[in-house]
């Protein structure tokens, strides 16, 4: 009988690695190759549309922060990097609180991680909204965390969708995010 040995890593290990990685339940996941131009453009457009509303005072609170490609330290063995996060509470230099909104721009190399692993993680951690964005299909799937977990609010391509995050709210007009 042979036993399989599996490495287990922590945030301390993660902080010493070179390159782009995520750490989920002690397992490392390479984030290579770097995102495509379309991937980056769609993520940026979503973040810019939200920030534009917060900058004009339409919906944001004094603690709302829109972040792109920033590490969220979930636990001692899990660090993920959503494409876009909205955090509506005070944070320092490291995100160690649960974001209110996480957006993942899905690519062929990240499909399983985004649709299954991160879906489960974000649901379990209490992320209020999870948005899966598929640039090639010009499609966004929006999920809201309710009492029993994520429930899909809909599939959107050209619609403007409102997101209520406690005292904050904003819209994403999906017709304006595609490259």
Task: Give a written overview of the molecule.
The protein has 179 residues and is α+β, with helices and mostly antiparallel strands. Helix content is 21%, strand content 36%. It is built from three helices and twelve strands, in the order H-E-E-H-E-E-E-E-E-H-E-E-E-E-E. The chain has helices spanning 11-14, 37-55, 111-125, and strands at residues 21-24, 27-30, 64-68, 72-75, 78-80, 84-88, 101-105, 129-134, 139-146, 149-156, 160-165, 168-173. The strands form four sheets. The chain has a six-stranded mixed β-sheet with strand order 3-6-7-8-9-10, with helices on both faces. Strands 1-2 form a two-stranded antiparallel sheet. The protein has a two-stranded antiparallel sheet with strand order 4-5. The longest helix is centred in the N-terminal third of the chain and has 19 residues, at 37-55.
């Amino acid at each position: 009988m042979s036993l399989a040995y599996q490495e287990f890593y922590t945030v301390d290990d993660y902080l010493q690695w070179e390159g782009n990685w995520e750490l989920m339940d002690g397992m490392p996941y390479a984030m290579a190759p770097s995102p495509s131009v379309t991937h980056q453009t769609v993520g940026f457009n979503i973040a810019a549309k939200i920030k534009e509303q917060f900058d004009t005072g339409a919906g944001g609170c004094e603690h709302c922060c829109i972040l792109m490609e920033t590490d969220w330290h979930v636990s001692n063995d899990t660090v993920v990097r959503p494409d876009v996060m909205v955090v509506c509470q005070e944070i320092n230099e490291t995100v160690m609180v649960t974001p209110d909104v996480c957006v993942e721009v899905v690519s062929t190399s990240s499909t399983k991680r985004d649709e299954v692993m991160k879906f489960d993680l974000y649901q379990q951690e209490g992320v209020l909204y999870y948005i899966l964005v598929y640039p090639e299909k010009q499609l966004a799937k929006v999920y809201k965390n309710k009492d029993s977990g994520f429930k899909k609010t809909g599939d959107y391509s050209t619609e403007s969708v409102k997101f209520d995050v406690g005292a904050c709210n904003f819209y994403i007009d999906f017709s304006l995010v595609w490259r």
